[in-house]
Description:
The complex is a heterodimer.
Chain A (H helix, E strand, L loop, with lengths): L16 H4 L4 E5 L1 E2 L2 E2 L2 H16 L3 E7 L2 H13 L4 E6 L8 H15 L3 E5 L2 H14 L3 E5 L1 E5 L4 E8 L4 E7 L5 E5 L16 E4 L12 E7 L4 H7 L2 E5 L9 H10 L3 E4 L1 H5 L20 E5 L5 H7 L4 E6 L12 E4 L2 H25 L2 H6 L1
Parallel strand pairs in A: 1-4, 1-6, 4-5, 5-12, 6-11, 7-11, 14-15, 14-16, 16-17, 17-18
Antiparallel strand pairs in A: 2-3, 8-9, 9-10
Chain B lengths: L1 E6 L1 E3 L5 E2 L6 E2 L5 E3 L1 H17 L2 E7 L5 H10 L3 E5 L9 H18 L4 E5 L10 H9 L2 E13 L4 E8 L2 E8 L2 E5 L11 H9 L3 E3 L19 E7 L9 E3 L4 H15 L1 H8 L4
Parallel strand pairs in B: 1-6, 1-8, 6-7, 7-13, 8-12, 9-12
Antiparallel strand pairs in B: 2-5, 3-4, 9-10, 10-11
Helix pairs in contact in B: 2-5, 3-4, 6-7
Amino acid sequence: xxxxxxxxxxxxxxxxxxxxxxxxxxxxxxxxxxxxxxxxxxxxxxxxxxxxxxxxxxxxxxxxxxxxxxxxxxxxxxxxxxxxxxxxxxxxxxxxxxxxxxxxxxxxxxxxxxxxxxxxxxxxxxxxxxxxxxxxxxxxxxxxxxxxxxxxxxxxxxxxxxxxxxxxxxxxxxxxxxxxxxxxxxxxxxxxxxxxxxxxxxxxxxxxxxxxxxxxxxxxxxxxxxxxxxxxxxxxxxxxxxxxxxxxxxxxxxxxxxxxxxxxxxxxxxxxxxxxxxxxxxxxxxxxxxxxxxxxxxxxxxxxxxxxxxxxxxxxxxxxxxxxxxxxxxxxxxxxxxxxxxxxxxxxxxxxxxxxxxxxxxxxxxxxxxx
Amino acid sequence: xxxxxxxxxxxxxxxxxxxxxxxxxxxxxxxxxxxxxxxxxxxxxxxxxxxxxxxxxxxxxxxxxxxxxxxxxxxxxxxxxxxxxxxxxxxxxxxxxxxxxxxxxxxxxxxxxxxxxxxxxxxxxxxxxxxxxxxxxxxxxxxxxxxxxxxxxxxxxxxxxxxxxxxxxxxxxxxxxxxxxxxxxxxxxxxxxxxxxxxxxxxxxxxxxxxxxxxxxxxxxxxxxxxxxxxxxxxxxxxxxxxxxxxxxxxxxxxxxxxxxxxxxxxxxxxxxxxxxxx
Lengths: 371, 279
């Protein structure tokens, strides 16, 4: 494995003059079926912060097959923090394909020379980032959870979990530009959009020749379920681990989640055991979520899981083992049998709902409807 | 049909512990295994062998101990194993690794034309998923990542039809051989190794190639020199929260009422959402 500390390498490096022309931070805005993946906005928020240190502009890159769609996305990109939007619109870019997307991004980077290029760590953008970095022969750090700047040599410090989340390591791309990184969705907050922001839109004309692209997209089967999207957006998430003992106990978590307007997720072992769909896996090899409230039930709290829930507003842990590691990084802990605690919680929430209802009813039915 | 499967020997990350004081990895006793995601790629290749009688070569890069992982792959039914091992590769990042593997693949291709290269979607130690795509780009192979299913291969016309996973669904994609596919996990688990294959694997030679065997003359592209990224620091994750405030000594319902009050106090919007259900 490449990840050994090489601190001696961190001496002040005078950047190759050819590379010091590289300026600015770019974010690739990923879209599918005219819908932007939220990680694009998350990255624009982070890019703005980094850009302040480097005193540079933030660029957004938007590709697509339809001018109107790309224009709408570009406008949003400006609202979320882009100063310049680089558009490429071409029929060859209608669906994601590695070849045409790589060709366009490589050409844009060569022409405009950004010093940092950020992409989401999604299946689409990981494919694109690896391809582009290989063509440009530059460094790419995968799946980052933190980005900072070392001002001394304008280098991007990209921190990522490694060895299944047991360790974090900070990776630098020293004498190469651009410095590339993919970032896990859900790690950074989505900034508030500001529709008054002004930005420049550049419509880049690239001559793409469809005959050069061997791979064709024949169709698209949308995932009707979209559990993973619901999980990412939920304010309340109830996570289940091996401590649930059997698949059927997930129904208790589902009932509680429904009452709290939330979603159910779980650890890698329960997904591997087939108790829960893979789309709902939380952690290093699953999703990173940032709900307001996360309730971990029967989860011991291995680092692999921790990586996925650290950004929750409040973490509540319920476990019958008082020494479970999850209590080390939760906000509130309850030691006990979830088969007693979860049903009790369900009753408490139901009582609260019905007493509110009774209270409103006393004040008149009209009020109840108003709420 | 000649299929090459890229595999890696990795420490079993689920068994890794971090030293509480020094924050370093405690490797002692952590078993080295064949990267679990590679097994899905290997199984897909074995299915092609069943259907088309394909010749399967497994290729890995790593220290000499990685021979064990290749032998494992042979025991499942691969035909030939090559380990790329040279001190000059030490410290390679994903860019340098893909350079070395691409060189070895060129060499392999010159003896026996390669039709498909398979790789796992990522490894469990580095977790990057970058080496497969990098290799495809360096060799000019068609790149198909996150393949869930190979629907059809027309070996005569060199055509392939696959389902690949995207964020919002499944792309139905046609492409051409030769290509490189990274295989998604979770669809077909690896078969059991058969006894004859296990016996064969124990005796079969694993070819060890150094950089010259792979035809790499320019050492500026491999090892530390060929790696744009360097590791600045390694540290154990610190939590800004915890240890948890423990709630105890009451009946479950009392504990839950207190808990709910706390949640709703911090997040009134969650309470509002819950009470919406009164409607």
